[in-house]
Amino acid sequence: MVKRVELSLMIGPMVPIPVSRAVIDALQSVQITTTSEIGKPSVFQLTFSLNNRSPLTTLFMLTGGSALPLIRVLIIATINGTPDVLMDGVMTNHQFAPGASGQPGTLTITGEDLSRVMDYLPLDGVPYPAMPPEARVLIMLAKYALFGVVPLVIPSVMIDVPLPVDRIPRQQGSDLNYIRMLAQDVGYTFYVKPGPVPGMSIAYWGPLLKVSPPQPALNVDMDAFTNVQSLTFSYDSDSYKLPFVIVQEPKSKVTIAIPIPDITPLNPPLALIPPIPNGIRPITNAAKLSPVRAALIGLAKAAQGAQVVKGTGKLDVVRYGRALKARELVGVRGAGMAFDGLYYVESVTDEIRRGDYTQSFTLSRNGLVSTLPRVPA
Questions:
Q1: Fewer C-beta neighbours within 10 Å, C or N terminus of the chain?
Q2: Quick one: 89 exposed, middle or buried, by C-beta within 10 A (0-12, 13-18, 19+)?
Q3: Per-residue pLDDT tens over the stretch 257-301
Q4: End-to-end alpha-carbon separation of the chain, Å?
Q5: 3-state secondary structure of 178
Q6: Thinking of the domain 215-236+308-370, which architecture would CATH place it in?
Q7: Which CATH number applies to 5-118: 2.30.30, 2.40.10, 2.70.98, 3.20.20?
Q8: How far apart are CA 97 and CA 156, in angstroms?
Q9: What pTM did the predictor assign?
Q10: Would you call the peptide bond into 194 cis, given omega within 30 degrees of 0 as the criterion?
């Protein structure tokens, strides 16, 4: 069991440096939200308690001005002597509320992960001759190496290398917008994950993976082994509909209906009893796509709609023993036969205050009853 959690805060332009003791003493709370929802970045919020004469007010307001438009923030929690990078991002907003009746004011700083840096400059029209989507993504991500961003790009089975004599792909919008558009075209996702070491981040472009080594189990109603403060489940079988895509054969103009399974090697079943579909759900905007490309996009959307079991809860990191991670699997024990087993962690919100570190989380899976006789403790 963890006996102590130490929080480190680093702030600075381009390369963050450790903040002074005065800044740490003024820090009241930290909130970080990480979600697997496609197109949503990780966000953070720092709250400081400042009096009207504090030099920190001027310092932070300067960092939000035009003189220093890009201020990087690194938040690290050291648990059991091991640093865990919770956030590597940039400031996006400052709010200051003056105090009243002798009480100190409040300075609130919000920001996003390093994907925000990729959205600053519109680069419409940049050509990428004879390059498949993954090559274009690698070239765009290469310019962010000075921020410690390391690309992890999974080639798509949908190989599309346009000949320069036919067409030359050109960028549309900022790097972030174009990378997300290329991911959507092949049923992929894109996000930036901080770590595994301070100052480094992984920029992932690939399929939404729901396979990973399971994290330590969340224990419910197990006396001394209980490590969650609360955990509730909901089962919404009425929301599940059988997905399919309709494509059009370009020469004969014949329409073809392709049923889409929600179970794939990248989205394995986590439950023995899946829901019975009560209808059909067409995947829109796929009629003009090739069958392979339409199927890839359909697989990504079908996997999202099959998660009929949801779990929401809260845990104390000190009691749990580590920080729970989003976009990974975790086991649940003590909730009963219907709800025990492995789950995919959809989102995690870290809430850190002096002497208190809790996490709110959301879990999901595709049905009832675990596929495993027991989950790792």
A1: N
A2: buried
A3: 777 776 666 678 899 988 877 777 776 666 666 666 676 677 766
A4: 13
A5: helix
A6: Roll (2.30)
A7: 2.40.10
A8: 49
A9: 0.89
A10: no
